[in-house]
Amino acid sequence: MAILAPSILSADFSNLGQQIRLAELGGADWIHCDVMDGQFVPNITFGPLIIKAVKKSTHLPLDVHLMIKNPDNYIESFINAGADYLTVHLEAAPHLNRTVNRIKELGCKAGVSINPSTPVSTLTEIAEYTDMILLMSVNPGFGGQSFIPTVLKKVEKLVELREKLNARFFIEIDGGIDTSTILPSLHAGVDVFVTGSSVFGADNITAAAAKLKNMLNSNS
C-alpha cells in the first residue's frame, strides 16, 4: 500500500497539533519531520523537542529526516524523542554503514537519503541494510519548490537495484509532490510520498490529504 507522509515543514506551528489531526482525518499514514541545521542545507527548522511534541500529538509513525551535518551526534536524541524512521543523508555521513547500524541498534528503522544530483549508484553498498531510501526531488532546504522530473529515472534505477539485491526497503520521495506529480511517482515505483505545501499549505488540510490518498489508493 502506498504511504502518504505529510511534512510539518509547511504546517502552522502555532496550531501544530490540530493541523496534524486534520491531516490524519484525511488519511495520512505517517507524519514527516524535516530537521535542518542551516549548515548542510540553507535553512534551520527544529530539533528533538518538536519531535517529542509531535509524538504526543499523533498515533501515526514519525518519519524524521535529518538534513544536518554530523548526524551521528544526534541520532540517539531524535530516537529518544520519538522517531520511528530516522533518515540521514549519504552526503553527510562518511561512515554510513556504522550510522545505519547504530540507528537500528537503538530500535529505530533506518533510512538513507540522497540529493537530486547524487546518483543512485552511490547507494549500492548500503541499500540492502536500510529500511528506506529517500530520493530528494527538490534541492533540500525549503518547502514549496518545483519537482525535478529527472528524479523519476532515479526511482526506476532504485527499483532495479532493490530487485537485484532482493531487498525490501521502502522507496520514498520528497519535494514538489502534489496532484500532478504523485501518480507519475507512484508509477515509477515510489512507496512513500512526502507532501508539504500541497497538504499543510491548503485551505482545507483534510480534503487535500484525502484527495492525494485517494489518488494513491485508486492507482496502486
Walk me through the structure.
The chain has 220 residues and is an alpha/beta fold. It has helices spanning 16-25, 48-57, 75-81, 96-105, 151-165, 182-188, 197-200, 205-219; strands at residues 3-6, 31-36, 62-67, 85-89, 109-114, 132-136, 170-174, 192-195. It has eight helices and eight strands; from the N terminus they run E-H-E-H-E-H-E-H-E-E-H-E-H-E-H-H. The protein is globular and about 45 Å long.
In CATH terms, the superfamily is: Aldolase class I
- Helical content, roughly? 25-40%
- How many domains comprise the coordinates? 1
The first-level CATH class is given as Alpha Beta
Radius of gyration (Å): 16 Å
The span between the termini is 7 Å
Output the helix-strand order: EHEHEHEHEEHEHEHH
Global mean pLDDT: 96
Task: Write out the strand line-up for the largest beta sheet, numbering strands in chain order.
Answer: 1-8-7-6-5-4-3-2
Number-wise, the strands total: 8
CATH topology name: TIM Barrel
Broad shape: globular
Residue stretches low in confidence (pLDDT < 50, at least 5 long) are none
Could you give the topology of this structure?
Layout: E1 3-6, H1 16-25, E2 31-36, H2 48-57, E3 62-67, H3 75-81, E4 85-89, H4 96-105, E5 109-114, E6 132-136, H5 151-165, E7 170-174, H6 182-188, E8 192-195, H7 197-200, H8 205-219
Parallel strand pairs: 1-8, 2-3, 3-4, 4-5, 5-6, 6-7, 7-8
Helix pairs in contact: 1-8, 2-3
